[in-house]
Amino acid sequence: MELIERDCPDTVRRHLSAEEAAAVRRFCGEGQQVRPEDVRLVEAVLEEMHDGRHVRLWLECDCVSAAGGRPRLTARVREDGPRHFVRMHQYGEHHCALASFRQTPEPENAGPEDGCARRGQHNPLRPVADALDYLDNLNEGAARPGGSTGSEGGVSERGRRLPRLRRILHTLLEDADFARLHVDALNENSRSWERLEAYAAGQALSPRLCLSQMLYFRPWTPLNEKMMEIDALPWPERKVRSALLLFVADEIRAGVAIKKTSMGECVVRPEKGIRAGGRDQRLTQPPYWVLSVVDRDRDGNARFREAFAQHAYSFARPVPLDSRYERVTLKLLFGVMAWVKKHGVEVTLWKPLFDREVRQTDGPSLWCRPDFELTFRSVTAVGVAARLHRVVIETMGADDPDYLERKSRTQEIMKRRGILIEHCVADDADQKERDDAFFRRVAAKILHLAGVL
After folding, report:
1. What single-letter DSSP state applies at residue 118?
2. Rounded to whole angstroms, how far apart are CA atoms 63 and 214?
3. pLDDT band at residue 114 under the 50/70/90 scheme
4. H runs (alpha helix) in 11-144
5. pTM, rounded to two decimals
6. How many CB atoms lie within 10 A of CB 95?
């Protein structure tokens, strides 16, 4: 294996040692036994490849001898998470243990019920690690209803499999930057589909296929036309020919997602129905992000097979949400961000779609998924390093004892990530007073931590 220059791929920076190469293959090869020393070696290689902001080096695998046909790995950092490897499909497939790739090794013998075993000890919810996993495997996707295909779903905090379409949807929205909003973006009128198109164009599924060729954003596109485009594409082996439609729906009713256009209503009616994310299972609080699978049935007819829907804050700012209660909280947080900027503090808002890691010096990492996180830096003198601060926001939308007990367990972990502030939302006459108190508390905490007050 060789580390090569990203900007000059013909230049070899260095060869990996035999120990490093073996560690990478054990760490990222499905079914491989990871040794304790592998983690240190792999982390060092990743740090050499990615400086925390930019990719400097690629890792070229020597399992293929032909020049110009060797498969490569790059490094990525999602938000404030650790560095990890990503396959680069446009450079060919591996002929070694990395042919069956995993982003990070999971605990031995972990099963779907491990999610609720002990606090922080479940398998964390992670994004889709490999772009090829956006496609169904043969004899798998079409036969399984509801989008819960195969073993690629994440494990939820209550021990159930995260629906596969939801995991794909969250990965797309997170990687295309819909789960993050800097205060300066509050006044921007960016076009969502342009951001998605730019992201999809850079994701290779195979040497001759990129995500933008099978992911589209216009629900008025005729199904037969789209599937004929798919039929004409070079397709990876052992994968079903299908497309993904992603859009923001104006309304969902009776199993139908509706996009209103100047030409009338555009209707998406999946054969296997629409699953709902979050707490709004009746889908009565639009707008919604909708991700639908388009393929052919057993008779060869193009169809919408299934779909998954998730709250969006608004059409102008389609931040994905879990409930209408979060929409109330987010509106207040937008106001806080704008207000504290007048005092010189610039806040970035995150809507975590996957688990966040809380590292411990004396034990294994813990994992949690807050409703929102606010990050900002201290206001300091010129030349002085500004400290990064984090405020964790939790929306409390119920008083059920089981709900509160689950929240209390996860909130103990959240308090290790940052300052935790709760916002209670209920449909009563006292909500305005609670909203005002929440606004003042969050704004005051930000200004205090930033050194303004």
Report:
1. S
2. 30
3. very low
4. 18-28, 36-49
5. 0.79
6. 14
